[in-house]
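> Could you send the DUF2200 domain-containing protein prediction when you get a chance?

Sure thing. Input:
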Amino acid sequence: MNSVDRIYALTFARVYPMYVQKAERKNRTQQDVDKLICWLTGYDKTALEQQIAKQSSFETFFAEAPQLHPNCQLIKGAICGIRVEEIEDNLVQNVRYLDKIIDELAKGKAMEKIMR
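Output:
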């Protein structure tokens, strides 16, 4: 199974706790993680919790997102050695956008700078 297939097979609910743990290890909070996810996807807190509760796949999670933030194309850089701005598969790119902003959070970047 290649990395694209793995992303299509993953549920958001399975990865979400890892995002929170990564942030908390660097003295950031679950609220910071939620704020970034909501910024990127347009979900509010209640809708985000519903996506987690229903074990949505990443495909469903992004398909049902109210609206990706128009500035998400400004998210640049490499995740796992791949530049997020060069990814052609929309779902994979959206997941990597999310990975990248959580990574920036864990590295101590200011929320205002992450939410471009």
